[in-house]
Amino acid sequence: MAQPNECNDIHNCRLLFDIVWGCLATIFFAKRPSATASLRDRAAWWLAECNRTLSQRLKLMAVALVAPELIVGFAAKQLIIARLFSREYDMSLTHGFFLVMGGFSDADGHPIVTRSQLSVANVVEGIRAIDVEKIEEKSKGDLLSKTITLCQASWFIVQCIARRAQSLPLTELEVATLAFSTVNALTWLLWLWKPLDVQSPIGLTVQTKPQGHVGDRPYPFGTTWLIRFGCMLTGIFVADDYDPFSNSSVPTFWCAAESFEDHFSNQTATAVVIQFLLGSVFGGIHCAAWALVFPSMVEMWLWRASALVITGLPIIFLVVGMIPERVYFIPLSASWPTALDIFAVSMILFYSVARGILLVLPFTTLRSLPIAAFVDINWSVYIPHL
């Protein structure tokens, strides 16, 4: 009879392909059009994916791979603003999300995202008159696809717990996927009522641009990459940096925060704290691979060091964020950046290198896995016997 750490029976074992496919499918599970969509709608959806929203999706994917906790913070802030929109203007949460995403545009094609635009006569009424079904049709996303995605992540987490309960080792790839699944599951919960994306805004017949308004160059012209990163990190855009009347869409990580400055400050601070704490949780899950078998000592210590970096740096960022501005906002000289700029860039580089290592190592370690890693879970032990 085969021992728990042996793999002599093909029916009780899994292949390397099964391990890799299960992990990649969990991380990159794609949302597709509704099953009831026509062939023409599906073709249009794929064309839109390849053109109008490709750049935005690539940005989100890149950030999700390097720092998925930023996506959680972004999702939390979007949910906060969407709720504020829906409650203040008596509309559904789906309408609120679509507003935050720039899904409604005025007669001139400018996104409607500020209070001043919503205060124009007939704007709120026009938005309320749009059915939720029409918004979902425009975004090509439905609750079923999101539920399936959430179930996929939850099922993977259950499998990892079951393997440890049966003293079966996880692979480094599975540990990394478990970290992504935990963070992504929370993201999907926050975005449960959010339309998939804005492939084509819903236009109103009302003009919201004030007379005599002189617009600036479209965002992000005139802003440095450090400022744009700060906007992505906090979800707060300075009002002067983004003018909806000079743009036809909203920035990828836009949260319309300046529209609700009096309501949003405390809530966004909470969202940022949660974001960084989840970053530590994400790194802490990688530390679960501390005692796993690695093909070499170099890979083992690279993994351990990188896991410690991505676990500790978010906490350091939080602590530094509590330091009074006058302490760190002092430039070394007139031509040098501030001490905070130097610190932020250094920490970002360290974090990015560590995340890069933890993206590569899960695949390099697949070349030499212990035999017990191929033993499948014995689900029969969880089935009651009469």
Automatic annotation (TrEMBL):
Keywords: Membrane, Transmembrane, Transmembrane helix. The chain crosses the membrane at residues 61-85, 272-294, 301-322, 342-361. It comes from the Eukaryota. PANTHER family: TRANSCRIPTION FACTOR DOMAIN-CONTAINING PROTEIN (PTHR35043:SF7). This is Uncharacterized protein. The lineage of its organism: Eukaryota, Fungi, Dikarya, Basidiomycota, Agaricomycotina.
